[in-house]
Amino acid sequence: MAKITSIHIHLINLPPKTIRTDAIQSFVTQETPIVRIVCDDGSEGIGYSYTIGTGGSSVIALLKDHLAPQLIGKDPTRIEAIWRDLLFHTHATAVGAITSLALAAIDTALWDWRAKRASLPLWQLLGGAQEQVPVYTTEGGWLQLPQAALVEQTLAAQAAGFKGAKLKIGKPRAAEDVRRLQAVREAVGDDFELMVDANQAFTVSEALRRADALAPLNLAWLEEPLPADNLAGHSQLAAHSRIPIAVGESLYSPGQFADYVAQQACSIVQVDVARVGGITPWLKVAQMAACHNLAVCPHFLMELHVSLCSAMPNATWLEYIPQLDDVTTQPIRIVDGMAMPPAEAGLGVGWDWAEVEKRCLVKTAIS
Fold this sequence. Notes:
single chain, Enolase-like, domain 1, TIM Barrel, 12 helices, 14 strands, 38% helix, globular, Mandel_Rmase/mucon_lact_enz_CS, hydro-lyase activity, Enolase-like_C_sf, RHMD-like
């Protein structure tokens, strides 16, 4: 029986390849904690999570000072027990982003270890529900773009084979959002899916107003229209909006998702494997959504979510934001707008360790 003998932790920065501005923030960099778990028989698993520019050092401190030391001597097959023990070990800081992101880096490494040990790609180990997943892009559509550029980028995405594109909303006046989206809809036609994302910018009254104004545009969903902690507001909006309501990237535990599902406050579940605390809780949320006939369309981390989406029958979209290309050996494979899960055992993320070392800001080991 293998035992964990050491944990190696890196923190790297990955500047975005395009300017990214939404209704509440701009993206400066992606801080990426990477965790490599090594066992006494030489087997290993590699996991990771991310921030969008702040908090990375706090995630690393939590890993180094509190979580990683708890892993030494543990049996890596007991992933559920390890996740639960680590959650309770940090109960004073959970539920929250820093703890969830740290847990995710460890948990994804353990699942990578398990899939490699089984000589299976992760998506097959978890059930292998579908061999390809439709892809929409979020690389264009940012709020700072003028209308002409918004149209041009969305047409380029359509020509590149994407099945849909997500556009940011949250201009000072609703009429501005409507004009921009109307121009895009007229350019791409009715058969191309358009999603919109407000990034928690609206009040309930404004969200109701904008949802009504945008409804004629046949949108796939309205994402994060309200602050994520406004459960009652989302429930009210979901009951009145003709556009499906999507939430999830700012929820940090299965329990928070359970509250949304119980209150019928969304119909698109965007559970993020890093922000919810790893693959172990991600699967609970996705399966809960399946039991309630809700679609799962995870936020960000396409290199990992392609495998998780392929494992779940109710995963209907993968979000395209290429962020790991500079530190991995190959991008995910997309054919005719459909993402293919990796064939390699494990998570299927091939790390370019020379590039990781070059970009490394923090490096530490626990044994």
